[in-house]
Amino acid sequence: MSEPISAMNHDSYDGIAKVEECGLQGMITLRGDLSDKVLAKAVKDATGQKVPGQREALVKGDTGVCWMSPDELLVLVQYAEVNAKLADIAGALSGTHALAVNVSDARAVFRVSGPNAREVLGKLAPVDLSPDAFQPGQIRRSRLAQVAGAFWMDDAETFRVVCFRSAADYVFKLLKVAAQPGSEVGFY
Q1: Cα 72 from chain centroid?
Q2: Which of 35, 113, 136, 175 is buried most, with the most CB atoms less than 10 Å from its CB?
Q3: Alpha-carbon gap, residue 18 to 143, rounded angstroms
Q4: What confidence tens digit (pLDDT) does each residue in 134-149 have?
Q5: What does the alpha-carbon distance between residue 119 and residue 89 come to, in Å, rounded to a whole number?
Q6: Using H for helix, E for strand and C for coil, what is the string for the chain?
Q7: Which of 40, 112, 41, 103 lies closest to 77 in space, CA to CA?
Q8: CA–CA separation, 132 and 168 (whole Å)
Q9: What gap in Å lies between CA 51 and CA 41, rounded to an integer?
């Protein structure tokens, strides 16, 4: 049996910010009533986190949960544990109107870090990324040039970007171009 590999096999680029593909990440799309106590307990048991509020990302390392829409969460777990966590969530939600699906191999994750990380993302997404408007622990679903994506901040200089695996090469190239040396805008 072959070993799983990430979309960009850990490619990285150093420019005005560091762009790197994060590798394999366990991801579960969870849809349902986010106010349901059974769903909240399943999320807490899987991640140690509460159900996040609107546009909130509660992530530590490779584990956490992100708000994606009024009825959708992205549950992050270690890649090696995703099937077990999915089974636990499905079991906990048995009899509840909910959907939990392993989307780990359908997504790619990138890290953009450094003092100019806001500038890099700001060139690609129609989102106010000023420090007053966008802080660590917040998430946005948006466009990255011509494709859908989502991103959150782990800390004041680090973003994580999620996109469809089929668009990973395109997104990596976008991020590299936006991070080229000499492309500083000086806005943030």
Answers
A1: 13
A2: 175
A3: 20
A4: 999 999 999 999 999 9
A5: 38
A6: CCCCCCCCCCCEEECCCEEEECCCCEEEEEEECCCCHHHHHHHHHHHCCCCCCCCEEEEECCEEEEEEECCEEEEEECHHHHHHHHHHHHHHCCCCCEEEEECHHHEEEEEEECCCHHHHHHCCCCCCCCCCCCCCCEEEEEEECCEEEEEEEEECCEEEEEEEHHHHHHHHHHHHHHCCCCCCCCCC
A7: 103
A8: 30
A9: 9
Taking only the tens place, the pLDDT of each residue in 80-133 is 999 999 999 999 999 999 999 999 999 999 999 999 999 999 999 999 999 999
Structure tokens at 19: 């762009």
Amino acid of residue 49: Q
CA–CA dist 46, 32 (Å, integer) = 16
Rounded to the nearest angstrom, the gap between the alpha carbon of residue 105 and the centroid of all alpha carbons in its chain is 13
